[in-house]
């Protein structure tokens, strides 16, 4: 609202300018307010007219007052935003934004997304240059209740840029009220729920295979009375033969008009198959999680490496596929084959719990980075971590977007360059040169996580296929020898074992030929007191008599059930 000078009292004036300025100029306001009101409003003057120098002096004083108030009130009025994220690369798949933009926050809402918002318009400004500014990440599959090793909600969500988590089946209709009262009500992160078809929830056997506790009517009734939180149904870990658990979950989903997420073993003694799960029992919009496993779903043929034809058919009929990484549900051979053939996930999720947190460390940026390592782009993994999960549970555009007027749930991600180790569920490692890292999280307009400043990383992206550590060469000197492809790439000291797919600890052994030249073909022998114990030809290990190699098992392989 525009400031009207003639309506100011001394107290009102002090709200907009410094107190000493307000006190000084209020004297002038009080002295000539009747005359000023008359002039401003076109009425009659109520005091004697001023003449000569007195008129000039008093009205010059008033003019100066107008200018001073304007000068001192503009900054206060201009600070219309509470927080401004400046200079970031904003990517919002839902609104089609992919450009350098500024994002302004007012209260708990996004107030503006546009180029070059003045810093003076905000009370707090954060420079996010060279970083991605994205909607808060949505983890469709996590465990914060029920499961024996569930994890704290806020503690592990905000550092990863995750502002919405969906607890996947920890509670059932019997235990959901306790979950809501003890966890959801006290958490800052938004917690939504897939209600377990088992009334007792995910508390292990014999409960999870108890078909008498799988009540579609009571499950649907609990959902309908808690639609603000419950967004779907989960069935998991059913240990008996047949499709009872899936069918009852689907029936509850039909009654409550919500999707079902399925985690269904396809072991030979289950009497179930992926083909029948997906093409007969599930509906369009239902979700099969753990897609890159080979126990919950047979996505890739163990013999041909091809995506099974019924997987494509299920996708065409509208069944959705979720990653659900976890401690046992992401295998490099399955994921690499599927991604190479264009069978991408519909949603990216972590299945994060105590075990997967400790070993695979599979938070949202970690899983997104793994899929980028396999060939997906940043834009492709982002839409599957924001918009897609929000839509699948019927919460878009409430969440999953940076749209103006929406809740200010925001993640700021950095794409780091270096050499990074990523583990699958065996856990086998693969090395990559890019990694997403969250540096700032906003939940409902408040900064809930901010990474401490770090020294600039040394961006060495060299990855060795084979690395000899501490080998004796030449005149008895010790050196590291790194091989890339079929060539000697580097001979030196301090080459990092973490940068190598296969490491040979060669201390005390002699590596020949003595004159190792960088760029030479990697035809080498390793000797122990003159006896050949390892032969390398064209960069490939042909023999290793003493078992010196420390392999990257995703390269050397113990996946005996895959070609």
Overall body shape: flat
Mean pLDDT: 87
Q: Approximately how much beta-strand content do the residues carry?
A: 25-35%
Estimate percent helicity: 25-40%
Radius of gyration: 32 Å
Number of helices: 15
How is the biggest beta sheet arranged? 8 strands, mixed
Strand segment tally: 24
Describe the structure.
With 563 residues, the chain is of the alpha/beta class. The chain is 26% helix and 28% strand. The chain is built from 15 helices and 24 strands. Strands 1, 2, 3, 4, 5, 13, 14 and 15 form an eight-stranded mixed sheet that branches. Helix 5 (176-182) links the parallel strand 7 and strand 8. Helix 2 (19-41) crosses helix 3 (52-78). The longest helix has 27 residues, at 52-78. Residues 1-22, 24-47 and 553-557 have low confidence and may be disordered.
Describe the protein's topology.
Blueprint: H1 10-14, H2 19-41, H3 52-78, E1 81-92, E2 97-106, E3 109-114, E4 122-127, E5 132-135, E6 137-142, H4 153-157, E7 162-172, H5 176-182, E8 190-196, H6 216-224, E9 230-236, H7 244-256, E10 260-263, H8 274-281, E11 287-288, H9 309-316, E12 320-321, H10 332-340, H11 354-358, H12 364-373, H13 378-383, H14 387-392, E13 410-423, E14 429-443, E15 446-450, E16 466-473, E17 477-484, E18 487-492, E19 503-505, E20 510-512, E21 524-528, E22 531-537, E23 540-544, E24 549-550, H15 553-556
Parallel strand pairs: 1-4, 1-5, 6-7, 7-8, 8-9, 9-10, 10-11, 11-12, 16-19
Antiparallel strand pairs: 1-2, 2-3, 5-13, 13-14, 14-15, 16-17, 17-18, 19-24, 20-21, 21-22, 22-23
Helix pairs in contact: 2-3, 6-7, 8-9
């Amino acid at each position: 609202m525009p400031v009207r000078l003639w309506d100011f009292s001394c107290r009102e004036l002090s709200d907009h300018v410094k107190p000493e300025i307000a006190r000084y100029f209020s004297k002038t306001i009080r002295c000539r307010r009747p005359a000023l009101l008359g002039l401003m409003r076109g009425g009659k003057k109520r005091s004697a007219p001023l003449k000569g120098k007195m008129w000039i002096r008093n009205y010059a004083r008033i003019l100066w007052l107008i200018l001073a108030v304007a000068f001192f009130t503009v900054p206060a009025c201009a600070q219309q935003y509470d927080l401004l994220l400046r200079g970031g690369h904003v990517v919002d798949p839902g609104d089609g934004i992919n450009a350098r933009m500024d994002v302004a926050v007012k209260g708990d809402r996004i107030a503006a997304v546009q180029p070059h918002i003045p810093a003076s318009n905000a009370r707090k400004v954060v420079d996010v240059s060279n970083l991605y500014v994205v909607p808060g990440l949505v983890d469709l599959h996590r465990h914060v209740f029920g499961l024996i090793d569930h994890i704290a909600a806020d503690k592990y969500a905000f550092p990863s840029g995750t502002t919405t988590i969906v607890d996947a089946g920890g509670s059932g209709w019997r235990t959901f009220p306790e979950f809501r009262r003890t966890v959801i009500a006290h958490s800052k992160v938004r917690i939504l729920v897939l209600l377990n078809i088992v009334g007792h929830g995910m508390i292990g056997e014999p409960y999870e295979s108890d078909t008498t506790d799988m009540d579609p009517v009571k499950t649907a009734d609990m959902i309908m009375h808690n639609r603000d939180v419950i967004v779907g149904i989960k069935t998991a870990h059913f240990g008996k033969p047949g499709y009872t658990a899936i069918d009852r979950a689907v029936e509850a989903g039909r009654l409550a008009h919500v999707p079902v997420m399925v985690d269904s073993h396809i072991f030979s003694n289950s009497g179930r198959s992926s083909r029948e799960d997906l093409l007969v029992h599930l509906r369009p919009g239902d979700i099969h999680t753990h897609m890159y496993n080979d126990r919950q779903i047979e996505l890739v043929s163990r013999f041909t490496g091809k995506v099974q034809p019924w997987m494509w058919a299920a996708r065409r009929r509208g069944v959705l596929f979720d990653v659900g990484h976890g401690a046992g549900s992401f295998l490099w051979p399955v994921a690499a084959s599927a991604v190479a053939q264009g069978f991408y996930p519909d949603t990216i999720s972590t299945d994060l719990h105590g075990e997967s947190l400790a070993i695979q460390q599979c938070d949202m940026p970690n899983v997104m980075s793994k899929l980028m390592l396999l060939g997906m782009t940043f834009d492709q993994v982002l839409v599957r971590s924001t918009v897609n999960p929000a839509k699948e549970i019927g919460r878009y555009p409430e969440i999953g977007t940076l749209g103006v007027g929406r809740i200010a749930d925001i993640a700021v991600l950095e794409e780091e360059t270096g050499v990074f180790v990523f583990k699958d569920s065996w856990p086998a490692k693969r090395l990559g040169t890019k990694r997403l890292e969250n540096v700032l999280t906003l939940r409902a307009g408040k900064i809930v996580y901010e990474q401490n400043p770090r020294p600039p990383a040394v961006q060495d992206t060299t990855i060795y296929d084979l690395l000899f550590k501490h080998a004796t060469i030449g005149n008895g000197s010790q050196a590291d020898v790194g091989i890339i492809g079929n060539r000697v790439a580097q001979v030196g000291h301090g080459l990092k074992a973490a940068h190598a797919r296969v490491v040979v600890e060669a201390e005390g052994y002699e590596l020949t030929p003595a004159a190792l030249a960088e760029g030479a073909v990697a035809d080498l022998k390793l000797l122990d007191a003159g006896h050949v114990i390892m032969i390398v030809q064209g960069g490939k290990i042909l023999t290793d008599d003493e078992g010196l190699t420390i392999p990257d098992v995703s390269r050397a392989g113990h996946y005996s059930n895959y070609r």
